[in-house]
Amino acid sequence: MGHQTPADVEAEVATPPRGARSEAVHQKALQAAAVLLKAGGLKAATVDAVAAASGVSKVTLYRHWPSRQAIAAEAFGMLMGKYLVIPDAGDPPADLSAYLADIGRFYRGPLGSVFAELVGACANDSTTAAYFRTFFLDERRRGFASLVERCIESGYFRADIDLDEAIDLFFGPLVFRLLVGHAKIDDDSVRSIIDHGVRGLRANPLST
After folding, report:
1. Where are the domains of the chain?
2. What are 70-122's pLDDT values in tens digits?
3. What is the pTM of this model?
4. How many Å apart are CA 69 and CA 129, to the nearest integer?
5. Does residue 128 contact residue 122 with C-beta atoms inside 8 Å?
6. Could you say which architecture CATH assigns to the domain 80-201?
7. Contact yes or no for 73/131 (Cβ under 8 A)
8. pLDDT class for 12, splitting at 50, 70, 90?
9. pLDDT on residue 7
10. What is the second-level CATH architecture of the domain 6-77?
11. Cα–Cα distance, 204 to 13 (Å, whole number)
């Protein structure tokens, strides 16, 4: 298989049928998939199970999604949006620390294992990866990028920061620990990772 560009992979995200009825069916299936994911992880969210729980036929499900992993990726993005909200209390450094602490707690909670399962599925299937990125990752990265930009505007971070690199700097260690299990993601560990990342991005590293 040749190398795929981001545009190639994003093209694998199918446009679901349009119209009020189709949208209602889409949301009904997503809600059912979310419940199944929370209860039993990715293995529980089969097409048969989603069809049975939602009352949406398998034929219709396949008109909306190409696979059960695609349904799960979109449903997980919906769940993540409910559980994690970017804070905006007027103090960008404090907002950043609070959000990353919430992320750490999310990863080590029940849904953290679902996240790990989906990341594993992405490694083996470009279509799953496209859905995961479109319905989960992209929105999370946009939200966190806005938080990093607020840290830049406040003078807390340097102005020459690459936003994508800054996002990976904070999230990379947490995701790696979640997937490999070689180290903890407890509150102290997350705080230490934040401190190390902040030092590299500070406008004035010597200031307190």
Report:
1. 6-77, 80-201
2. 999 999 999 888 888 999 999 999 999 999 999 999 999 889 999 999 999 99
3. 0.84
4. 9
5. yes
6. Orthogonal Bundle (1.10)
7. yes
8. low
9. 45
10. Orthogonal Bundle (1.10)
11. 43
* Segment 25-38, tens digit of pLDDT: 999 999 999 999 99
Average pLDDT over residues 160-172: 96
* Same fold: 6-77 with 80-201: yes
What angle do helix axes 163-180 and 110-124 make, rounded to 10 degrees?
110
